[in-house]
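In pairs, describe these two lines:
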Amino acid sequence: MTVTHDMSLLALLTNASILVQGVMALLLVMSIVSWWFMFRKMFSLRVFKEQTAEFERFLNTSDGAMIIQRLNKDNSESGSLENIVKAGFSEWRSQKAKTESPEILEGIQRTMRSQYQIDMDDLEVHLSFLATVGSVSPYIGLFGTVWGIMNSFRGLAMAGQATLTQVAPGIAEALVATAMGLLAAIPAVMAYNFYTREIEKLSLRCERAIDQFTNILQRTLIY
């Protein structure tokens, strides 16, 4: 038996019910927004990693005086890792005038960790959206599929005769919603997992830099 209906993708989309079309439109918007966030996150992470690597090399190859000299400069384009260390250095300068006690190291570390948390929060922006898209898109697509199949069977019941010509277009329209849900979810899940791992690696590098700079202050400046 040959199906005479137009089974092209465009025809399936245009002939779908209003609700199924709404589901497809929602999934399309979610997919576009998630791809936009993915590209933005890719750029911001690349910049952060490059700046972090550059400042790490500087910390590892410079003595305390060189590090202090660089931190004293007003460099508005400095990377986030350098900003974390600069926050601690500013705290040290403000506390150094008040006391010589080694206890100021605790305040310096708290200041650096506060700036570190701000930077990590900035890096994690929009990751929750990617996680949401990855988790709910298949279910939204499935809802459109179920609704489309229900419409197909209602139409079949009113027709009173079961033929492939009558059933196939409606089921195909419904399955397109599932396919769109998967197309929206899979890249979002992969991007979320990848970016989460990258941010965790950067987090560890920042924590090492905080400890390293604290040791530099303790060794070179405090005593």
Observations:
- The two ends are 91 Å apart (CA to CA).
